[in-house]
Write a structure and sequence with these properties.
This protein is an alpha/beta fold. It has 14 helices and 14 strands. The chain folds into three domains: 163 residues, P-loop containing nucleotide triphosphate hydrolases (Rossmann fold, 3-Layer(aba) Sandwich); 84 residues, Rossmann fold (3-Layer(aba) Sandwich), CATH 3.40.50.11420; 112 residues, 3-Layer(aba) Sandwich (Rossmann fold). 36% of the residues lie in helices and 18% in strands. The structure holds iron/sulfur cluster (SF4).
């Protein structure tokens, strides 16, 4: 089941210098947002712009440096373009003047490697139309749309919107509900939310609000209480809840009150399953019990805002993992979507944040290097559950197997 658009699809505009990528963005956005110049290599860092795309809604266009850039600085720009690939859901490969060669082939190989859909846009149609043989070759080789376009005289930019809508993975702009498949219409769901000194003044924290909204979207019934009222209320409650979700740090106390016959999970596990690479988290999390002295752990915070989890990523997670393992560990924290440390194989484990500010695809692509190298990956929510001894019961509502701790 899917619901409304909770994140913006990211579209990367790739191509050689001076193929008209920036002009294309301006044509799509119908305004001058990227610097346009006839001097090759005007775009250095990827430039982002939010626009509304018919059928997709709010989206982010990412203008990148030329894939054929030269010189030392050029290589740095190319590296930034390649790193931008990890953040996109769809790519438009811009070519012009019938030029298609090694640079394009290489970038397509990378797109395929990341599983990013793309189409090819032959720009500057007004200057030189697309050669029929090249068009046929591209369609036959890459099995994707090949579009003639003139960013200078854009006849029908909405045609591009239709292609983007067709190729964009649905997961880029819709999400499975957090509790979809677990609850149905009319089901009572109990949410245990401590209001302690760590709770923000006068409001609920985001995962709690998201859970309430999700329960309502599923036409189920949300009942919210503090742990101090749980035992008495649960005793009186009829019918019993189909699911109890608690703050993870209360899990131990709550699990003694909630009978085993009632499924119980934590807000953090619910979020880990909702956003991220849950299957690989399930495989990787048990490695927390195998850490050794001197192991290096990479913590990935996916934004630099740290509005909600500065404290968790920087202090709590390292402390919980160190205390749980009893080992001397070496933590590295990388913020934002900047490049990962070069040798991922140096790390014994990678711990990804909840990723509330980025797309599912961005999380999966960010973890890909570690997953490909066989490094165990997990996320904050799974770490909290594992190190607090609540893992098996907390993941049980989402699967049926037990994992040995
Ligand atoms: S994206 Fe990650 S680091 Fe940023 S606020 Fe969300 S959970 Fe925290």
């Amino acid at each position: 089941m899917t619901k409304g658009k909770e994140t913006k699809p990211h579209i990367g505009i790739l191509g050689r210098r001076n193929s008209g990528k920036s002009s294309l963005i301006n044509a799509m956005a119908r305004q001058e947002i990227a610097i346009v110049s006839n001097t090759p290599g005007t775009t250095t860092d990827p430039v982002k712009k939010s626009i509304e795309i018919p059928g997709l809604g709010p989206s982010v266009l990412i203008d990148t440096a030329g894939i054929d850039d030269t010189g030392e600085l050029g290589q740095k720009r190319i590296a930034k373009t390649h790193s931008a690939l990890k953040t996109i859901d769809l790519a438009i490969l811009v070519i012009s003047e019938n030029q298609f060669g090694d640079d394009e082939i290489k970038i397509i190989e990378e797109l395929n490697d990341f599983g990013i859909p793309f189409f090819i846009l032959h720009n500057k149609q007004d200057f030189q139309p697309l050669n029929k043989e090249l068009a046929e070759y591209l369609i036959a080789t890459y099995h994707t749309d090949v579009v003639e376009f003139s960013a200078r005289y854009p006849a029908d930019p909405d045609r591009l919107a239709l292609i983007m809508k067709k190729l964009m993975p649905v997961t880029a702009y819709t999400f499975n509900t957090m509790l979809g498949g677990l609850i149905k219409q009319g089901d009572p769901v109990l949410l245990v939310t401590p209001i302690d000194t760590e709770a923000p003044e006068g409001r609920m924290i985001l995962p709690q609000v998201q859970a309430i909204r999700d329960i309502l979207d599923n036409h189920a019934v949300a009942i919210v209480l503090k742990e101090s009222e749980l035992e008495v209320f649960l005793g009186m409650m009829q019918p019993k809840p189909v699911l109890v979700i608690t703050d993870s740090q209360m899990f131990g106390r709550v699990s003694k009150i909630v009978p085993e016959s009632i499924p119980l999970t934590g807000f953090s596990i619910m979020l880990a399953r909702y956003k991220g690479d849950f299957d690989n988290y399930l495989k990787g999390t048990p490695h927390l019990s195998k850490l050794k002295d001197g192991d290096k752990i990479l913590i990935l915070e996916s934004c630099t805002h740290h509005v909600t989890c500065d404290d968790i990523g920087r202090y709590k997670i390292p402390r919980w993992v160190s205390e749980f393992s009893g080992k001397k560990l070496d933590f590295t924290i990388v913020s934002g979507l900047s490049d990962l440390p070069h040798d991922i194989k140096d790390y014994a484990m990678v711990i990804q944040c909840g990723g509330c500010m980025i797309t599912n695809r961005q999380i999966i692509n960010r973890l890909k290097a570690a997953v490909d190298a066989g490094i165990p990956v997990t996320n904050y929510g799974m770490v909290i559950a594992w190190t607090h001894g609540i893992y098996n019961r907390a993941i049980a509502p989402f699967l049926n197997s037990e994992v040995k701790m």
